[in-house]
Amino acid sequence: MAENETPPAEPTAEEISEQKAVRLGKRDRLNELADGLGGGAYPVALPITDTIPGVRARFITLVDPDTASGERVGVAGRVVHLRNTGKLCFASLQSGDGTRIQAMVSLGEVGEESLALWKEVVDLGDHLFVHGEVITSRRGELSIMVDSWQVAAKAVLPLPNLHSELSEETRVRSRYLDLIAREQARTNVLTRAKVNQSLRQTFTGLDFVEVETPMLQTLHGGASARPFVTRSNAFDTELFLRIAPELYLKRAVVGGIERVYEINRNFRNEGADSTHSPEFAMLEAYQAYGDYNSIADLTQLLIQNAALAVSGSHVVTWADGTEFDLGGQWARISMYGSLSEAIGEEITPETPIERLRELADAVDIEIEHPLAGKYVEELWEHHVKTGLTAPTFVMDFPLDTSPLVRWHRTTPGVVEKWDLYVRGFELATGYSELVDPVVQRERFVEQAKLAAGGDAEAMRLDEDFLRALEFGMPPSGGMGMGIDRLLMALTGLGIRETILFPLVK
């Protein structure tokens, strides 16, 4: 399409309905010919010999105009361009990865009946099989001079206009159309696959074992979040979709699987925005005889290896062309220290909650909570978080907001926990794990009191998990990282772009 040419308008609902009726008629016509020329609208098998990307790679040196290779291939793809001109018809076939090749259908090669049928039944959007010699056209375009063809799957709805951008609404709600029309959408899928493969390779190289833990749980735990609630008819009991796999992975460590991880789906019945989704992919890992320092090293290695896998460098290029450096040794800052510096007043675990409320009110932070740590975290997010762009580990959180975390070995009132911030959002969190069953019970009891007081995010007391700890869990480091957010850090995209089929109203 010329630069100054206006793209055709999207068809109206009435026009689409009319086109569908016409295409359904063509489907019927193809099915009438199922035992003869044409083979039906939806054949079960086709004599494919090659892929479109494979043909392009094999004949990359075939560039001179009007050149015949002498080799014949059979390929299939979706029709994304169609031009019928008398005795010679053209179609551009697109493979799943977006690679295209031109098919040329001439009267001399296929005969009058086949050419007439082509003009009668082939539409944009159809999947098509073509067989013929690989050649170049008069313009030097790699093509297949078709000697036989067959509709592989008849499209009864027309494709959207491929010359103009799909609306965000269409891209999210009809991802299948997005994948057909937009290279970035296809790239996102491949990038995610490379990232998951890289994560598993890094873990394998460090002797970690991948496991699977329950999605349906009798008690929700492992994080402070509001769960989705369901019911089992077979067991006649209330169940929860997991908010985290943590408590089960720790059971595995107790059982002797000392380096364990899971890439899983988590569900949290909370808000949705540019960095949150109610259903999301999560990586969690636990390493016996590690702590929050060693698990931070592991997390940095996992992310940097993923960057290498998708871009060949620690410097990744986002979808908008921005370069973002994930290399080097990442900064580690103290939550209390960075907050104190930002507001010009020393804040410690001993700072009275009344003073924290005053500081929150002064900057219009609306919060009413019995835990002083909640105020510290909210104040930190307001004053410090927005200034973090480069990868940064924020270390040492308030004790009262982290019920599964070991207390700090030198600083009273805080725990050995970090959050990793990249691009200004939280990407991962890591702990020195709390393995003392007596203290863990005390923490759970405190959480149970909060739950009884109406805190829907508070954890429940899990007797079976406590019993597992009583058999002895070695000192360990643990981490959790959102896979969707990792893709955001690597691509610069929002969360609805990194999830293939995001939940929408």
Assign the structural class, choosing from mainly alpha, mainly beta, alpha/beta, alpha+beta, or little secondary structure: alpha+beta
Number of separate domains? 2
Question: What is the third-level CATH name, the topology of the largest domain?
Answer: BirA Bifunctional Protein, domain 2
Total E-strand runs: 18
Characterize the main sheet: 8 strands, mixed
Range of helix content: 25-40%
Terminal residue distance: 35 Å
- Measured on Cα atoms, how large is the radius of gyration? 29 Å
* Text of the CATH class of the largest domain: Alpha Beta
The averaged pLDDT comes out at: 91
Instruction: Tell me the number of helical segments per DSSP (H or I, 4 or more residues long).
Output: 16
What this model shows, in words?
This protein has 505 residues and is α+β, with helices and mostly antiparallel strands. The protein folds into two domains: 14-153, Beta Barrel (OB fold (Dihydrolipoamide Acetyltransferase, E2P)); 181-330 and 390-497, BirA Bifunctional Protein, domain 2 (2-Layer Sandwich), CATH 3.30.930.10. It contains 16 helices and 18 strands. The protein has helices at residues 13-32, 52-58, 107-110, 112-121, 168-173, 175-181, 183-205, 246-254, 292-311, 335-343, 353-362, 372-383, 437-452, 463-470, 483-491, 495-498; strands at 68-85, 88-94, 100-106, 127-136, 142-153, 209-210, 216-217, 229-232, 237-241, 259-267, 279-288, 315-317, 323-325, 331-334, 392-398, 414-422, 425-432, 476-482. The strands form four sheets. The protein has an eight-stranded mixed sheet, with helices on both faces. A hairpin with a 5-residue loop joins strand 4 and strand 5 (142-153). Helix 7 crosses helix 9 (292-311), helix 11 (353-362) packs parallel to helix 12 and helix 13 runs antiparallel to helix 14 (463-470). The protein starts with 12 loop residues before the first helix and ends in a 7-residue tail after the last helix. The model has no long low-confidence stretch (mean pLDDT 91).
